[in-house]
Structure formats: C-alpha cells, structure tokens
Write a structure and sequence with these properties.
This protein is mainly alpha-helical and 198 residues long. It has 7 helices and 2 strands.
C-alpha cells in the first residue's frame, strides 16, 4: 500500500478520533462554570493544578498570595492556628449567645444543652480563666516552682512563699540538698519577677 497516496491520507485523517473540546469543570465546590484557568495546588503538591473559572482563579490567587513570602514555619503556624483556633472561637460564640444558663438545661434562644457540656464549662470553678501565655524560659521557671501554664501572678507568689518557708535552712537543719533547691527556686522566681509575670 502506498502510504503517501492521497486516498490513504484522507482515510487516516477521518479515522483520527475527533477530539471534542473537553470542558473541565471549575474545581470550586458548587461552581458550574468551565475551569479554563489552571492554578498551582501549592507548596507540597508541586506540578498539580486546580482548574478554575476566571472568578475562582482570581479568588484562589488572592488567597494563594497570602502565603507568598512567608517562611514554611510561618505557613505551618498559620495552618495550625487555623485548625485549633476556630474551635474555641465557635465555643465562645455559643457561650456568649447562651447568656444566663437555666437549671432545666433549656437555654434561652432555643439553645438546648442536654449534656450540660457548655454549662459545665461556664459554671466550673475556673470561670473561663484568662490563661497567661508563657514563653519557654518562663515555663522552665514555673516548672522549677512546681507550677504549670495555668498559674497566674498570685499563684506564683503564693507558691514561692510556701517553698521558701519549707526549704529554708532553718527549717531543714542546714540540709544541703534543700539549700540547692532553694537557690533554684529563688532564681526561677527572680526570673519571673524580672519578666513581670508575678
Ligand atoms: Zn468557578
């Protein structure tokens, strides 16, 4: 067969499946537009792309730019906060909306809390403490005093007084080990004081 014959050429062209333009849908949830625009999926998915319509590629690019220029650590931190940060916000919103809580468990504004989950949270002896945030050095000092991150200025002061009294050489017959421990505690307290945490 003569492969160069005009007849064969025309047959071959006709047999070639006609590539109908495949309409990729926009990847934005619920969008029915065509996804004519490609957008990189991002840092950890190199070489992968979303298909978006013009409106959604613009929206995506705007949010994508948000991370540009941020270090990997900053992005990771942002994502962590986005995950854990949204839950307490939601709970606080519920608490605020709940105003007073009634004994029968039926909350105002139709909010029913049969398990008493939110009631316990607002009623407990802790009364939503404003937890101070301590840095690493302060946390170390608190640990030395036998405290954790829930300790406030008053607690630190009280614990320090108690430990000094308990570990004072006069109360321990000049015991060397309690003297060393006392020195550590004074140092830790001095640090917390200098950091204006107590
Ligand atoms: Zn779209």
């Amino acid at each position: 067969m003569d492969l160069n014959s005009p007849l064969f050429q025309s047959i071959r062209v006709k047999r070639e499946p006609q590539r109908a333009p495949v309409r990729t849908p926009c990847d934005h949830p619920g969008c029915v537009e065509g996804g004519e625009f490609r957008a990189p999926k991002g840092r950890l998915r190199e070489g992968q792309y979303f298909s978006f319509c013009l409106e959604h590629v613009r929206e995506y690019n705007a949010s994508y730019n948000y991370f540009r220029g941020m270090s990997d650590d900053d992005v990771a931190k942002y994502q962590r906060e986005a995950v854990v940060g949204h839950r307490p916000t939601w709970n606080m919103g519920v608490n605020r909306a709940g105003k007073g809580h009634r004994e029968d468990g039926v909350e105002p504004e139709g909010f029913v809390d049969p398990m008493g989950m939110f009631r316990d949270r607002t009623r407990g002896p802790m009364q939503e403490p404003r937890r101070p945030r301590y840095g690493l050095a302060a946390m170390k000092a608190l640990t030395t005093l036998g405290l954790d991150e829930t300790a406030d200025a008053e607690t630190i002061k009280a614990r320090y007084k108690e430990l000094v009294k308990r570990l004072h050489p006069d109360a321990n017959g000049g015991d060397r080990s309690s003297e060393d421990r006392l020195r550590e505690i004074i140092q830790a307290y001095k640090f917390l004081k200098s950091a204006k945490l107590t």
